[in-house]
Amino acid sequence: MIRLDLFQRRYQNAVLLKDKNSIDFSFDEEQFKKEEVFIAESAEMKAVKKTAENIAKVDATVLITGETGTGREVLADFIHKCSNRAHKPMVEINCAAIPENLLEAELFGYEKGAFTGAVSSRKKGLIEKAYHGTLFLDEINSLPLAIQGKLLRVLETRKVKRLGAVNEHEIDFRLLAATN
What we know:
180 residues; four-stranded parallel β-sheet; 8 strands; elongated
């Protein structure tokens, strides 16, 4: 299927070229995927887009700031899709939406018997699920102080330790964070 806006753009181009009988439906899928997530019209937003493309090439932690509704998540998704990690998962979590007592288990995972309810199984944390990909923490300003310390240790050592685990293990991910 072809999105209607893409079809409309091609139709308008055909009309401008006075060639109504032939509308080319071939397109560069990789370019389309990038354009689909970030549309910029103003000079300022085009500059933001260009900066994001440049940042995507560097494997560094990025903090995106902006008011609610300004598209922080869209920008993070664009950075991920333009990066060399685009073929791996982008794991997203809204730190304000998960209760504090569950957030640590969600981020770091847990081992069998780590707490009540973890008797029968172990679970990978979101950091582990982002292996070789990108972890996007939205509303990172809502992250509890104790978890901030553990996350800082993960960023410094590139090792993660599940709740109830004895050993740490190596982890490779890129962190994108956003706050208002």
